[in-house]
Amino acid sequence: MSVVERIGAVVNESAEKTKKQKKPKKKPKPKLEAAPAVEPQPFDLNVQRLKALGVYTPADHSAQLALELRAVKRRLLRRVGFLRESGDRLTGRRGGRQKNLIMMTSTRAGEGKTFSALNLALSFAFEDQIETLLVDADVHRPKILNRLGLERGPGLTEKLADPSIPTDSLLYRANEAPLSVLPQGSTVDRLSDLFHSSEAKSFWADLSAGQPDRLIIIDAPPVLATTEAVILAKYVDEIVFVVEAGGTTEQAIAAALDEILDINPNVSLMLNRCLIGSGGSHYGSYEYYDRRDDGEEGAKSGQES
Ligand SMILES: Nc1ncnc2c1ncn2[C@@H]1O[C@H](COP(=O)(O)OP(=O)(O)OP(=O)(O)O)[C@@H](O)[C@H]1O
Ligand SMILES: [Mg+2]
What we know:
Bound molecules: adenosine-5'-triphosphate, magnesium ion
Structural class: alpha/beta
CATH architecture: 3-Layer(aba) Sandwich
CATH superfamily: P-loop containing nucleotide triphosphate hydrolases
CATH class: Alpha Beta
CATH topology: Rossmann fold
Distance between the termini: 94 Å
Strand content: 5-15%
Strand order of the largest sheet: 1-4-5-3-6-2-7-8-9
Number of domains: 1
Low-confidence stretches: 2-12, 276-305
Radius of gyration: 28 Å
Oligomer: single chain
Number of strands: 9
C-alpha cells in the first residue's frame, strides 16, 4: 500500500470512527408507571332503597314531596345566585370562588338534615339536571353512603389530611344524573382541628371555584352537638337550618342560631315534617312524605353505617 493509499485508509477509518462516535446514544425509555385512578366510582341509583326510606326518587315527579322540594329549591337557587329575576337559570358562570356551597345543619341530632340534604341533591340532579356534589361532613354520624347503598370508602377527612389526593378519586358518581357524592372518610382524632385547618379552607374554596355551575350540598352535624358545623359556617355561602316541626324547642333553635348567625348571616330555615305550607317566616316546608292520620312516622331507615 502506497503512502497516499495508507493516509487515505487512515482518513477513512477515522471518519468512520467519528461517524460512530457522533451517533447519539439511545437513552433507555423510562418505564411508564400506571397512574393512580382518579376517576370517580360510578354507581346506579338504588331507587327501591330510596323509596323505602321515603326519599325523593326521579319517579316522584308529581308527588307531594317533589312539589314541596321545588319551592325550596327555587328559593335556594335564588339565594345562591343561580336564578335570574325572571326565574330562568343562570349558567356559564366564570371561574373563581362562587356562591355554591350550601350547608345543611340543625339544632340537634335526628331532625332531618340528611333526609333533606339527600332530597335536595337528588332533586337538583335528577329533576333540574344541575351538577350537584353531595358531601357527607357528619363524620361522627355519617349516613349518606348507607342511604344510597354505597360501600364505605375514603373521603373528606383523608382529603383534608392530605390535599394531594385528587378529589375525583374519592367520589362516587351516579350513572343516571349529574350527581357526585363525597363520603365522610374515616374518623380521626382532633376532627375540629382538621376542619379548622388552612387545608380545609383551601379545599372548600377550590371545590367552589372548580366547577362554577355546580351546587355543593354539605350534610353537616348539628350545631349544639359538635363544633364542626360552626367551623363550616365560615366557609359556606348558604346555611339551610332544618327545624323539626313540633320537635325542636324555640329555646334550642335560638341558642343554635345564635352560634352561627354571628359567623354567617345567610341562614334559611327549613321546616321539616310539618303540616303547613311554605311561606311566612320559614324557608320552606316538607309535607310529611309518608304522613298517616294516626300520626305514625313514615319510612324509617334501617341500620346506619
Ligand atoms: N320529612 C320526613 N319524612 C319522613 N321521614 C323523615 C322525614 N324527616 C326525617 N325523616 C326520617 O327521620 C330519621 C332522622 O332523619 P335524618 O337522619 O335525616 O336526621 P339527621 O338530622 O340527619 O340526624 P343526625 O343528626 O343523626 O345525622 C331518618 O330515618 C329519616 O329518614
Ligand atoms: Mg344526618
